[in-house]
């Protein structure tokens, strides 16, 4: 059995040290992006890496997913592979053949709270942007022309989107979006 840690923070400047402090694990997968989607590089790698009998530990439910449907499907997908999932902060463990009704209830309730919290964050962000626009201090995201040109140049040299993203310092999704804009 391999113990695998999944660690997620929302931005690249946030620190991951506190999440599984004191926990012992063999391998860690770390994402520095929003939990609002299941399309996260390290999460995708983790799902491909895990095997029957493994244990995945996560600091808390909202670190795995901020959407109740994603949370439930991720736990189910892992359990269907024979992988046990343990949320340290909530002291909840889910395995393919040993999930109690109380644990299911807690997963659903805490997952709903995480989803609600994400909705509130997005609402406050939209309100802040609207006020900043009214004051004329928010212009929105501007396109980085040099970065986009570099992306196209590297693609022309035959690099993969992942390699381009690493070299330019952005996500593979950004590379894909920039390449589609001109296509």
TrEMBL record:
PROSITE patterns cross-referenced by the UniProt entry: RECOMBINASES_1, RECOMBINASES_2, RECOMBINASES_3
Top-level taxon of origin: Bacteria
Any one GO BP annotation for this protein: DNA integration
This protein's record includes keyword DNA-binding: yes
InterPro entries in the cross-refs: Recombinase_CS, Resolv_N, Resolvase-like_N_sf, Resolvase_HTH_dom, SSR_resolvase, WH-like_DNA-bd_sf
Family statement: Belongs to the site-specific recombinase resolvase family.
Protein name (database record): Resolvase
Organism per entry: Corallincola holothuriorum
């Amino acid at each position: 059995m391999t113990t695998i840690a999944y660690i997620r923070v929302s931005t690249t400047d946030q620190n991951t040290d506190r999440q599984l402090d004191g926990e012992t694990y063999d391998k860690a997968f770390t994402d520095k992006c929003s939990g609002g989607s299941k399309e996260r590089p390290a999460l995708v790698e983790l799902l491909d890496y895990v095997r029957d009998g493994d244990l995945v530990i996560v600091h808390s439910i909202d670190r795995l997913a901020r959407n109740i449907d994603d949370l439930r499907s991720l736990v189910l997908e892992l359990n269907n592979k024979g992988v046990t999932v343990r949320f340290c902060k909530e002291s909840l463990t889910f395995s393919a053949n040993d999930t109690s009704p109380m644990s299911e209830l807690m997963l659903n309730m805490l997952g709903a709270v995480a989803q609600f919290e994400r909705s509130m964050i997005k609402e406050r962000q939209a309100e802040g942007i609207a006020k900043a626009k009214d004051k004329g201090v928010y212009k929105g995201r501007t396109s980085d022309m040099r970065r986009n040109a570099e992306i196209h140049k590297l693609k022309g040299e035959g690099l993969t989107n992942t390699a381009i993203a690493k070299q330019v310092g952005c996500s593979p999704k950004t590379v894909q979006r920039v390449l589609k804009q001109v296509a």
